[in-house]
Amino acid sequence: MTTALRTLAVFVSALSLSACQKADDAVFGQRVHAYLMAHPEVVREAAEKLAETERTAAFKASTDAIGKYRNQLERDPRDFVANPDGKITVVEFFDYRCGYCKLAAPQVVTLIEQNPDVRFVFKEFPIFGEVSDTAAKVALTRSAKTKGVQLYKALMAEKALDDAALDRHLAEVGIDAAAARKDAQHPLIERQILDTHALAEALKIDGTPAFIVGDTMIPGADIPALRAAIAAARAKARPAESHS
């Protein structure tokens, strides 16, 4: 506890214990208000302390949830995975029409290409409407998965993804758009999308992109933080490998 907060605690305690009779709430409130007006730094420090406490609680809740849902996050056989033999796993929740996902995508592709030890799990998490939903479902079809990273790169490079652009990019990577759209209507693909949304809700993910490495969640297109989390995961894995 900082000096200012400690002083406030002592001051309030002294006020509340200064008489045997029940304290007058109005007078008590006026004295506390006067003290805070004379020492505004206490309010700032209290707010900072509250924010720190909330961050700590949120981090613990996030870490606990990641551990609980680890298998669904990292080992769902329905997901497309780049570098499937990698020792370090990164999970991305994304939407093909998300501007921040598009900003991060080129660096995601570079990361995949330059780091064969990183398993990259793609979680189709459409949140920006019908076109996003269609693109996600098409990407989960068997034919689209054979072009996984190539299709991801193409769709993320499209500034204004619509139905026509989706079909064009499917054709460019060698996928029959009409057949893929038909396959995308399979109820098991709809089930997978619903399961991903439920998983995101359990993890308190309400936006895209969101990356998870080990017990660390990285919200937003924070690639430096993502690279740092991967480096930390590598460093953590080395001692275990040296004793195996």
How would you describe this structure to a colleague?
The protein has 244 residues and is α+β, with helices and mostly antiparallel strands. The chain folds into 2 domains: 3-68, no CATH class; 70-242, Glutaredoxin. It is 63% helix and 10% strand. The protein contains 12 helices and 5 strands. The protein has a 5-stranded mixed beta sheet with strand order 1-3-2-4-5, sandwiched between helices. The longest helix is centred in the N-terminal third of the chain and has 28 residues, at 41-68. The two termini are 44 Å apart. The model has no long low-confidence stretch (mean pLDDT 87).
Instruction: Note the beta-strand portion.
Output: 5-15%
Instruction: Give the CATH H-level superfamily of the largest domain.
Output: Glutaredoxin
Mean pLDDT reading? 87
Structural class: alpha+beta
Q: How many helices?
A: 12
Quaternary: single chain
- By CATH reckoning, the class of the largest domain would read Alpha Beta
Would you report the number of β strands?
5
State the major sheet.
5 strands, mixed
Strands of the largest sheet, in order across it? 1-3-2-4-5
Instruction: Please provide the ordered H/E string of secondary-structure elements.
Output: HHHHEEHEHHHHHHEEH
Overall number of structural domains: 2
Low-confidence stretches: none
The rough form would be described as: elongated
As a percent range, the share of helical residues equals 55-70%
CA distance, first residue to last residue:
44 Å
